[in-house]
Amino acid sequence: MGRVVEERHGVGVPARVFTFFLRFWLRPLMRYVLFTPFGMRLWKALDPLCAVLVTPPGTRRAAVRFDGFGAEWIAGPGVEAMKGSGRVVLYLHGGGFVVGGLRTHRRMVARLSAASGAPALSVAYRQLPGTTLLGSIADCVTAYEFLLEEGYRADEIVIAGDSAGGFLTFAAALQAVLDGLPAPGGLVAMSPLTDLDHTDKLAHANLLLDPYIPGALLSELTPVLLGGIVLEPLHSPVNGALAALPPTLIHVGSTEILRVDAELMAGRLSDAGVPVTLVVWDRQPHVFQIFADFCREGLRSLEEMGAFIRDLPATGEKAA
Q1: What residues sit in the active site (predicted)?
Q2: Is-catalytic flag, 163?
């Protein structure tokens, strides 16, 4: 039990150049466009446009349809079974609960699948403005139940996600336990949002250092997410009954604003007796793994996550 904090020093020139450009084109879009009516429509076009992104050679996919949302199986290069028995990853994409989907994250999920040697079920849960936070969480729990019904043991399932998907990784696992389902075998979070109270983030030095997440965006996100409901502590996974959660791996960039949430969650998990490893990557942007073609450290990060998933112990317990 306990918390392990590791640092990965050094940042390559390509990552530095790419991060510089992120600050000057993506940050303004995030700050002034994302939550406007025009921005909501604009961002919804991103996922279809990302259909042009090429997955690694040897990747296989198969669509899955749920009531109200979709998903797809992804087997990265070298992964023999598209689905079946053994380890499986339930992947929840990021995008501020507004943007992103199967196509934006397909290339990264395929790489994670290959690194872990396990197929992944990538979930296109409902997002704003079509639902609230509770609707997004419900969809993720539904996908988790689907894997249990497909015959996977709970300890074989690893829930993983980035940013908003990192929030959902923790929230879905906590909600599943509240619903009487067994906890998954492990959790992996990249740059996760874990606390909807942004006071500490807005007072942190990384508020000015983050390459593309503006602090004002966080303040605007919470009321929209909750659909007018007054924020309560238990709306944030960091305040949940964390002792029920399995071993967890968190990766985050050293200068991003959500480092605050990553460190807070790691500390709370450790206090609850959950084995957790926090890896802080030198000057990497938010969810740098999705930019691995430019930030090559993202490939190393995905390999480390894959090793964590492979090495998780299996208890052999059947789902209830």
Answers
A1: 163
A2: yes
